[in-house]
Amino acid sequence: MGAPEDVTVEVKSWLSNNWNPELTVGEWWETLGSSGWAAPTLPAHSYGRGLSREEAVRVQQTIVEFGALGAPGGLGLLLAAPTIAEHGDEFQREQYIRDIVTGKKAWCQLFSEPAAGSDLAGLQTRAEADGDEWVVNGQKVWTSGGRMADLGMLLARTDPDAPKHRGISYFALDMHQLGVEVRPLREMTGQSLFNEVFIVDARVSAEAVIGGLNNGWAVANTTLAFERAGLGAGGGSAGGGAATPGTVAGDLERRAGDFVRGVGQRGAGAPGGMMGASWKVLVELAKQNGSVSDPSIRQDLVRLHSLNEIGRYMSMRQKALRASGSDLPGLGNLAKLSMSQILQLTRDVGLRILGPYGTLHAYTSEERRALEEITKRPTDAMVTNMALFAQGPRIYGGTDEIQHNILGERVLGLPREPDENRTKPFRELPKNG
């Protein structure tokens, strides 16, 4: 692929020949996904085009600006597809990735557990062999999109006699089978983005082991690297189109054009989707209510802009390094830490700009309409929603403390904390050990 402008021209030309708002969402995503434009960072053998992240963002922007429906969003495209492209065999790439890029199947991530805390390798969900299948029992928590998922990226312990990092396998789990129960968790924002999942005697085929038996820790670290890069500052948009992929939402049979808001327009989406536009929103609010005259608010707005720009430059630097066959160790961890910092600063300066109005928040659509009718301030909800959401990114995808440990030990070469539990058989470890 040539210059970035060439990518834009090629995408526009392709859209001119293929976009039709009268297609169903499923038909359109089949066309988009099979062309390689739905997930252009994937390798060519995995329904991608081998583009850089920056080029992929340009592709997404071009699709939106053209007025077409974007690629299927969610964790399938963000995490499952690139992980399977890297660790899966040819059968698994065809079996799973095609259904992801064409929106036929939605995915969730079944990693975290109540008893493991931030020590992911301490997971206790177990999978026991039964012929050509594995029988899974355990509990997962903080599962984004669990209620809408067709498949789950499951980590389960397959060898309790191995040390805790070595006896884990990575499965593609059918979420619709008996024995898998998903319960929503209501968050302080009023939404239920996360869920807890109870697994009792669920079954998964031996063909659904991704990356080899007992090699799940290495595969999981690949998934986490994609997660941190995707969530981090400068990571681009993982939001995808306005329609929801998978069989549960029911969007696949609907008209594709109904999900296009208009040329160049995007929906607000989840709180994290406001990151890119947060600075401009806050500047406009500060101008409207006069708080922009406060030197400390002006200083924080400049600081927020600077952090966003640094994240963008960091992404560009990584692209240049990769083009020369090099890399920047710890970039994903740095990007996630930067994102946490940006969201916290957005929370703090946003509430200061709103003043007393920052104490008002609506948790349902009805409440929001009533509040906007009284205050005549529809943009305030974006700021208060972000303020409530900002605590989450410091925890999910690996806490900020975990990111600091990784950077210290794996990038800077600092000595690890003494930990005999890394070499003991897992079954001999104390609970949470």
Explained architecture:
With 433 residues, the protein is of the alpha+beta class. The chain folds into 3 domains: 4-102, Butyryl-Coa Dehydrogenase, subunit A, domain 1 (Orthogonal Bundle), CATH 1.10.540; 107-226, Butyryl-CoA Dehydrogenase, subunit A, domain 2 (Beta Barrel); 269-398, Butyryl-CoA Dehydrogenase, subunit A, domain 3 (Up-down Bundle), CATH 1.20.140. 42% of the residues lie in helices and 11% in strands. The protein is built from 12 helices and 7 strands. The protein has helices at 4-18, 25-35, 53-66, 75-87, 90-101, 216-231, 275-289, 295-323, 331-354, 365-375, 380-389, 400-411; strands spanning 107-110, 126-130, 133-140, 151-157, 168-174, 180-185, 194-205. It has a 4-stranded antiparallel β-sheet, with no helix packed on it. The protein has a 3-stranded mixed β-sheet with strand order 1-4-5. Strand 2 (126-130) and strand 3 form a beta hairpin. The longest helix is centred in the C-terminal third of the chain and has 29 residues, at 295-323. The N and C termini lie far apart (49 Å). The model is unreliable at 236-240 and 263-276 (pLDDT under 50).
